[in-house]
Every structure is written in structure tokens, then in C-alpha cells.
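User: Could you check the structure of this?
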Amino acid sequence: MDDEIQILIVDDEKAANKYIEYIILSLGFRALSASNREDCLQIVKSYEPDVIFLDIMLGDSNGFDICGEIKSDPDNSKPIIVMYSGMDFSSEDRERGLQVGIDGYLNKRSSIEEIKLTIQLYARLRLSENKLKESESSLHSSIKKIQHINSVLRALRNVNQVILEEDEYEEMVRGVCENLTNNHGYQSAWIGLLDNSGKYDLLVESGMGEGYSALKEKMCLNEIPECLNDILGSNEVVQIEEAQEGCSDCGIFKLQEEEGVLSVRIAHGQDIYGFLAVSLPAELLDEREEWDMLKVVASDIGIGLHNIHSAHQIYRLTNIVKTIPQPIACISAEYRYIAVNDIYAELYDSPIDEITGSRVEDYLGVELFNSVLKEKMDVCLSGQAVQFETQFNFKSGGLRWMLVDYNPLYNFNDKSTCIISHALDITGRKKGELELEKRMSELEIFNDAAVDRELRINELRAEVNNLLERAGDTPKYRIIE
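Assistant: Sure, the predicted C-alpha cells are below.
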């Protein structure tokens, strides 16, 4: 298959052209490239590429006009044309694309996994179209597959839109499930989320029918089906094939009997949030793109959940730090400010928005950060609370002694991910301690001098007494021991 598919990239940015060309070649397809309208049309005529990734804006033309020329030419092979841009596509762009025959859209800012997946999907789509021409007997099944791939691509785009727009867990995962089924990507979809102890937290579904109630009842009792527990320990998509003991009343068992069921863990980094499962026609279970797409969707959901969790955490931290009457800040594992309160900002005579996101050393000083603070922060990020005294040079307050507390803040999986920094101005106390130390030193010197004086007086008294005794008189002075 790889040698049969030719993919043309049309982009006037040389770096972008080379980047997509590299990805196409790494997938085993033949890559062609053009940087302008004339070269593009010549390559289409000479090589008849199967798929064209066409930049929306070129120096001498635009993608819509070129697409119209290619699609309207009766002599070419009608390649699949995917509009390719670094900008978001507006509704006007999509309407114009529909008019000239654009087959799909891809954003240059997409992850390399999504770009690879899109290239593979359209390459497979083109190959399927070619095979349809060669074998009429496979027409029905191939069309069904193409339609399904297109519907899942639409679902993937819509899922990403939901993830970007929603800022609450339940609304986001519910929207994902509904998009996966309403856009004909899957016959049913359900997402289960767990709390940080691994117990049931939320289950939402779309298209699952009666089986949902039975599964939710089990989850609410923290009786997570064994098949789903196995998925939580794997990074790969898993097909649920065989019923296990006690599964006969489970909704997954009923779906597995009638259709195919695929499931995958939802995670981001080290944080495991739960699982995504879908049911689809059995004939599509062996299609590799199904598994790849499901993994991409689960990864995107994990990113979305992580972002929502981070946004909620920052919101809570911001409101907490505002209420504390001493300077307080939340610092990330990358040594950047996540949130600070007004008092902290006043010390550095800078707006809160300016401090937030900045590096700690930019405000506290590189020397102090490297010699004292970084080591303390690393200890805190390992999970230990830290308290220490040191001097800070503030813009508004000058040189001040501060008693600093670093306390770790834990994430979804009880891992320390950031630092709550609280500081108390102890300059007055330190000055008092220094003054006391100075006075004690002076007193010690005075006492030493007084002792020496008393010893000398005793010596003189003893000498006078000796002289009196020699003269026959009674000693006059008492010697102090």
C-alpha cells in the first residue's frame, strides 16, 4: 500500500513543507512538494497525486482557488484535497471549502500524532477509493468503511472542540460521549472517572441503553468490572472479548455479545483519570485506525481533564492567597509563579498579572535563588515542608529578614506538584536579636573589666595591710575572696 499512495504538500513555507514531507515519508508514503500554484498544477497533471495537503494562503494564490481548478478539471484523478493552515478555520472558510470541493481540514498546530493519523486516514481513504474502482464486489463494505472513517474524523474534530470549550468535568465528558455517537463514529460510548483513591467518581454515557444502569450500579458500589480494571493498568487500546465470572448482568457484557467493544485508559502524564469505552460493528474491530483514533481521543480527554483540574486548582489557590494578610505565593515545579496575593505583589512593586507566570529568580534574584531557595524548593517538591530564615531585598521595603515556610501541594494522584510559599517579616525580631547580642557582648566586656579592677583593689589592700603589720599597726582593710 505504501508505494501506491502519493501525497502532495503545497506550502510556500519551506520549513512547513519539509516537516510534513518528513512525516509522510516516515509513514511509508511517497511525498511530492510544491510551493506555488503553477508547480502544484503541473505536479497534479504529471503525477496525479492521491492526496493533497493544500495551504490556505500561498504567495501567488490561495488554496480555495487552486482546489477549484483541480476539482473542476475533468482530466485529473480528482485527488482528496485537505485544506492545511496554521489558523483556525472559520465557518466562512468551511462554507467556501464546501463550494470548491475541500475534503477535509488540518491545523498546522495539531500534534504530530494527529497529523500522522490524518495522513494515514486520508491515505487509507484514497486507497479504498482506488480498490473500489478495481472491484465492484467490495463496493458496499468499502463505502461503509469510508463513511465511518469520515464520521470518526468529524467526531474527533468535534470532540476536540468540546474539550477546548468546556470548563467542567461532567459537561466535558458528556459532550465527548454524545459527539462520538451523534457523529456516527461509534454506536455507544461511555466514560468512567475515578477519584484519587481509584474509586468510582462519575459515569456518563451515550447510546448505551439499558446496560448503563447495571454498569452504573456496579460502579457506585465500587465494583469496577475486572475488564475495566485491567485497562487502567495498560497504555494501549484493549478489545473486551470474553465475559468473565459475574459479568452476565453487566452492560458491557451485553454490548460485547452484540457488537465489538474497545476501551482505553484516560490519563495524562502520571495521572490516571479513568477509562473510555465504545461499541462499534464487529467488522470494524480489526481496522487499525479505529484503535489509533480511540487512543488519540483518550489522550485529548486526559489533557482536557488535566487542564480543567489545573484551572480549578489555580482558581482555588488564587482565592486562598488573596485572604492571607502576609505575602504568599504558589510556585510550580518549574519554579514559576502560579498565583500571588496583593501583599506579595506590593513588596516587589509589580502587578499580580506581571508576576504570575514569571520565574522566581526574576523577582527574588538569581544569586539568592541558586544559593538558598532552589535547594529548599526541591526538598518541598519531594513532599517535605520546609521552614527557614533569610534576607530578601524588596523594591518597596528594602532589605528585610523573612521567616519562610514552603509547603507541598498535591495533585490528583497525591504527588507534590507545586509549592505554597508563606513568609513572615521578622526584621524587627532579628534587629532585636542583633541588638541583644551586641549588648550582651558589651556587658561581658564590662564584667571582665570589673573583675580585673576588683582583683587589683584586693592586691593593693593586701599590700597596705602588710605595711601596717610591719609598722606594728593593725591591718585596716578586709580582703574580698
